[in-house]
Design brief:
elongated; mainly alpha; homohexamer; AhpD-like; 0% strand
Chain lengths: 136, 136, 136, 136, 136, 136
């Protein structure tokens, strides 16, 4: 149950700003499927437009990091934040982009390991080594 | 300021269990440098041994994910958890493993973006689409 | 599914401490509705009494911040903490106190933005400017 | 100590993209002061441009929420995320926008209260009341 | 709905590595019940083996902390992390190890209190007192 | 550097509400030392009074959980929340109440382990077993 209404295609078609974003999502993804995140965000066209524009730029295919690596990072952040929806959508996206079970297993292992050492470091309040400084 | 004492090399050398781990870290990394995390963990030899054994296995070079990708995931988790020490140590490690400034910029961009969409999804409590289900 | 039993009105009526709190909640809110949070907390009368007393004081109508602003802050914290129940209850409360869709859209936008810049700042470990110091 | 270099004014002036953003920040804020967040982000001009464009839009003066309320929400999120820098910068911004000590006290009180009830709700896994549903 | 398939007993029996772990869990707990966490982790035998080995060592009965205290700490961390599954499984485990309702009420009270003071401290960015230093 | 001024004893003595709380803290702890948290909170007497009253009740000596166990839980929550000040103050308090190094090592181990399994469970979105239900 969401705190907002999820827009149907008919409703989206009737609002030029929402329709423009939904059309662009469909074109960019070469798929008719619009997931619930965008249907929820449709209630706030300004946030919808900015979020989609930003996401398209950040997740662009021709970057310095390949698309699958970006999805792995997205899953890692979403897991640390406990965002159930985001974990599901980005795990599905990673699989669609070719993530193997072996890669997924290592992703989970690194996430698990990082959470342990983060906690140990924080619990003992370990001071940063000078060797890690950017310059010098 | 830590909540525990950081062990010097002399102290580590005097404790067989700690010495064994420090020796193995130095061998694995081909470097004499032992960072503060391990010097803090030396107060608890059992945790030290288990953590190093686990980390060595998880971050192993010959996995399904390359070592740099693992460091990027580690930075992402550490940032979401706000672990200052871990951010410093793993950003330094990623650079040592060849992370370019362009890759770092995209890593930051994905982390930033994920935190925004995580928050929007959580704020609106968006229900998971059936299309994301594992089977069917 | 909760980890505790949710108290019915009949059970609450049979326990003087719980009854007193439930009566006071109903009087303060001018409504018969007691939401599940209080029905769960009824298992621990001491925590129930203290939590209600604190909440009544903190959310008091005649403060320096108006009631709607307090609800917006409550939603912001609950979203950052990923507390699904709290997001639902306080979004409903904010709407009952007059939150418009435009205000809600800006609230989501600020929450989303703050999570991005929080992550960027944390990822780069930006040092605090001296200009932000309280005194001089 | 940051994980990146903080750009001086001279360096920023020598890079057209960074200079354009810094000029716009100074114009928008009617102040010469550029805080460290932007000096750190200057290392990544694309992220710098997008973040400033988004922030200007989100924190715009003529919205449905007044500028001070937005700062209070920003402080609440930053506190929940434990972002020290962001807490300092937005508390300073809130004071510059007129936050009184009484308002600050209530902000802290609401943040503290929300964190308690978030934790109690999460600890007991309280199910969402049907009464909080958006429609019906 | 999980992002992975939950293994049945028949599937586990057909995989020697998974079977060995499941057998050991049953022996250690003197119960036939294998909870979903392990059935999900079975997809990644290496992570399964390491996690079970670590957990068995950490939660060992003959430690410096008694088993119930360890479960209370586990619930506290899981609540702070918002891990619904973990809260359920460890609250059930704590009850199985004798946690009384009075103890549970105090656990919730301490968790709630800690979240409040954590937030107040973080919001005001209180500097650490020298008196808390480890040596001197 | 705090976002508020830390009150000196002279300032506290000049404000009856603050003085009353500081006096009570000193009496309860049988020590003249007032740590920075209370000196910061003195800026907001209402929050100061409520927080101290709550803390005194929650951490009371004659509860169902012994004082040391409560401190261990406090450290666990503070670590998960990344509250540096709180980790320092409650680790010092736990040691003052008799926490041994062996107990501290196990506390860290449980905190580390819980963060790993929390992350694995969240990453795989494991559904709660029916066996964990409170009744039936």
């Amino acid at each position: 149950m969401a705190t907002v209404r999820l827009w149907s295609d008919a409703e989206a078609d009737a609002d030029p700003r929402v329709k423009a974003v939904f059309d662009d999502i469909r074109a960019a993804r070469r798929s008719d499927f619009i997931n619930n995140f965008w249907r929820a965000l449709a209630n706030q066209p300004t946030v919808l437009e900015r979020t989609w524009a930003d996401l398209k730029q950040v997740m662009a295919v021709d970057g310095a990091l390949d698309p699958l690596t970006k999805e792995l990072i997205y899953i890692a952040v979403s897991t640390a934040n406990g965002c159930s929806y985001c974990i599901h959508s980005h795990t599905a996206a990673a699989r669609a982009k070719g993530m193997t079970e072996a890669q997924y297993g290592e992703l989970l292992a690194v996430i698990g390991m990082a959470n342990t050492t983060n906690a140990l470091v924080t619990g003992m309040q370990v001071p940063v080594d000078r060797e890690f400084a950017v310059e010098g």
